[in-house]
């Protein structure tokens, strides 16, 4: 399968881009003699790499607007967890399919997900054409029998995941240190090492989490994970807000990756801003995530980029911190690198996971600096075309089956609440 993008703007120059077998094979000012199975006339639209959402819970689109403006622990225990107990694989499928649609329409080409009913989300990813790292939730609450069941389920899911396409990677998803026992975290450590799997974990999201860890284990969360042996280059830690310098140094030493979720952190009032400057000083690789739609309430990575940059400037009283170029890299090249992917850049030989940006929209004019406009001015609405693995998932803002996906998600949400 081949795709030719004619006369798109790359780094200020107008070029043709030939895509073959999911990879960018040629970039040149003009490729007049090249033919392809599909041709898109760029019309001067800018071509940029797609966005990488490093932390979310896709099917929670069904919870959007359901339980807003609540304290985190009360929100989880009285609203979210009770409703999640009613979820089925079919409901998760419809919620995840809606999430995929929203991400395609706002320029996300990959997402890292932790949620129940793994196969529901996997089906949605396969049908919609995105890339994803998917994990089932591991929560044992110090119950040995529950842990035994979850270990068996994850072993089975790991084997089953091999039947999906290579756009999907299986990841281990221990929820957090306060919901997974030490024995559970030790199993995750060993199974990850045995099968070379990434680990997706909520970590140091709140001050209460730190206090509880110190009271229960006599250690701060990062120290506790170090004691278990779970700090490693396979760990992707979401949030990581309540850390001191010694803990950040431990993350650097063990090559742990971190995902900042600025919108969710502000909405749930976790009490502290992400210490971006300290992470960069220590050489920790940082990506961006939206979190789920119950705590954001959208999956628009353009909004997340803007909030990330603005919150850092506000928190540090420094308008130079986290410039647009840096936050753009976090959402593209660094996001890809965290998950072992070759995307995040537009170059020959790289995966064709690309966006065409409509630079004639009012919010993109006059166009002094494309990256600044994408970070500070744009929303997902500026994305005209989304391409993943060389396949066009959206063109001229049209996605196949969009009306049906929305209608079925609405119906699924009604069934869930009943």
3D structure, described in words:
The structure is a single chain. It contains 15 helices and 18 strands. The protein is an alpha/beta fold and 418 residues long. It has two domains: 2-48 and 355-402, Urease, subunit C, domain 1 (Roll), CATH 2.30.40; 51-338, Alpha-Beta Barrel (TIM Barrel). The strands form five sheets. A four-stranded mixed β-sheet has the order 3-2-1-4, with no helix packed on it. The chain has a four-stranded antiparallel β-sheet with strand order 5-16-17-18, with no helix packed on it. The chain has a four-stranded parallel β-sheet with strand order 6-7-8-10. Helix 11 (301-316) crosses helix 12. The radius of gyration is 21 Å and the shape is globular. The protein starts with a strand and ends with a helix. The mean pLDDT is 97.
Number of domains: 2
- Proportion in β-strands: 15-25%
Number of strands: 18
Subunit arrangement of the protein: single chain
CATH homologous group name of the largest domain: Metal-dependent hydrolases
User: Percent helix among the residues?
Assistant: 25-40%
Main sheet attributes: strand count, strand direction, barrel closure: 4 strands, mixed
Rg calculated over all Cα atoms = 21 Å
In CATH, the architecture of the largest domain is Alpha-Beta Barrel
Structural shape? globular
CATH fold call of the largest domain: TIM Barrel
Strand order of the largest sheet: 3-2-1-4
Structural class designation? alpha/beta
Number of helices: 15
Arithmetic mean of pLDDT: 97
CATH class of the largest domain: Alpha Beta
Terminus-to-terminus distance: 45 Å
Segments where pLDDT lies below 50 for 5+ residues?
none
């Amino acid at each position: 399968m081949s795709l030719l993008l004619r006369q798109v703007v790359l780094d200020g120059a107008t070029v043709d881009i030939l895509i073959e077998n999911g990879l960018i094979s040629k970039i040149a000012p003009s490729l007049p003699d090249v033919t392809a199975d599909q041709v898109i006339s760029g019309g001067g639209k800018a071509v940029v790499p797609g966005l990488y959402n490093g932390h979310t819970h896709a099917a929670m689109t069904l919870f959007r607007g359901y339980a807003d403006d609540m304290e985190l622990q009360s929100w989880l225990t009285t609203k979210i967890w009770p409703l999640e107990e009613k979820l089925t694989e079919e409901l998760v499928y419809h919620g995840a399919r809606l999430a995929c649609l929203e991400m395609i329409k706002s320029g996300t080409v990959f997402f890292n997900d932790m949620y129940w009913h793994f196969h529901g989300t996997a089906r949605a990813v396969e049908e919609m054409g995105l890339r994803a790292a998917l994990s089932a939730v591991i929560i044992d609450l110090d119950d040995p029998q529950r842990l035994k069941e979850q270990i068996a389920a994850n072993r089975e899911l790991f084997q089953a995941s091999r039947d999906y396409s290579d756009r999907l990677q299986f990841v281990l998803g221990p929820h957090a240190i306060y919901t997974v026992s030490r024995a559970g975290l030790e199993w995750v450590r060993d199974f990850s090492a045995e099968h070379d799997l990434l680990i997706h974990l909520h970590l140091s999201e709140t001050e209460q989490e730190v206090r509880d860890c110190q009271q229960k284990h006599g250690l701060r969360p990062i120290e506790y994970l170090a004691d278990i042996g779970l700090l490693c280059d396979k760990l992707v830690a979401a949030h990581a807000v309540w850390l001191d310098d010694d803990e950040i140094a431990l993350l650097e030493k063990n090559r742990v990756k971190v995902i900042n979720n600025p919108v969710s952190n502000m909405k749930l009032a976790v009490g502290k801003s992400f210490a971006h400057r300290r992470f960069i000083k220590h050489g920790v690789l940082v990506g961006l995530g939206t979190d789920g739609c119950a705590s954001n309430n959208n999956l628009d990575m353009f909004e997340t980029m803007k909030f990330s940059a603005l919150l850092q400037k506000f928190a540090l009283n420094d308008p130079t911190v986290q410039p647009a170029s840096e936050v753009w890299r976090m959402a593209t090249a660094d996001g890809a690198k965290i998950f072992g992917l070759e995307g995040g850049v537009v170059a020959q030989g790289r995966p064709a996971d690309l966006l065409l940006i409509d630079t004639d929209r009012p919010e993109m004019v006059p166009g002094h600096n494309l990256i600044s406009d994408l970070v500070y001015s744009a929303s997902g609405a500026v994305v005209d075309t989304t391409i993943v693995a060389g396949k066009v998932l959206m063109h001229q803002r049209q996605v196949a089956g969009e009306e049906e996906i929305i209608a079925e998600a609405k119906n699924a949400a009604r069934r869930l609440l009943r």
